[in-house]
Amino acid sequence: MLGYIQYVLVNSVRELGGEEALVAVAEKAGLKALPSFRIDTDYDNAQCLALIKATGEHFGLDDKALFALYAERFIKASRQQFPLFYDMAESAYDFLRRQPRIHQTLASSVVDHSTKKAVASKFELIEDEGRFWVNYRSENALCGLYEALFYRLLEHYGETGRLEHRRCVHRGDELCQFELFFDGKRP
Ligand code: HEM
């Protein structure tokens, strides 16, 4: 996975628990030290998942609590680092329609063709008769992260809505499928 998710995670660990937490999380994740993650570099998926798990364990948070905490920081960090993506979107719906393209834009600086292809293949949007679905296929199975980011993004735009998890790899389905609803607005 490109290093932005890990970059925000490591910064969060540092801000919440200082150097001590960084050392403890690295150790729990089986790393001597945490790399300086870069958005233009592709990192091992298993390493990213191990870091997420180690962070949750270190701070005593289950996945839901960890992803909620992370989403709070991620939306603020990405708003600061990539203001244009937010300014271009008038609403959470507008932003989410662009989210797969945002990922692809970020992957465009990576030289490796297979990384670009992998990033592009993860999210598929389906809009049909006013309904908005997202198919998410990834060995990382971070549907909990998607859900937390969805709700925090609504908050950013001062909106409400909900996500229905129709299919889920954690329940044995071959992909995760979300249906997204936006109060007061129809796609
Ligand atoms: C400006 C805002 C955003 C930036 C800069 C950003 C950036 C990134 C990057 C660089 C990755 C790694 C991509 C890869 O290697 O496949 C990633 C992963 C991910 N992002 Fe975003 N993202 C943003 C917004 C969002 C939003 C709003 C959502 C969901 C509502 C989202 C959901 C995810 C998920 C679920 C992954 C993990 C993908 C996997 O399975 O590997 N992102 N993001």
Automatic annotation (TrEMBL):
SUPFAM superfamilies on file: Ligand-binding domain in the NO signalling and Golgi transport
Pfam families: HNOB
GO terms for MF: heme binding
Ranges where the Heme NO-binding domain occurs: 3-162
Protein name (Swiss-Prot/TrEMBL): Heme-NO-binding protein
Organism (species): Gallaecimonas pentaromativorans
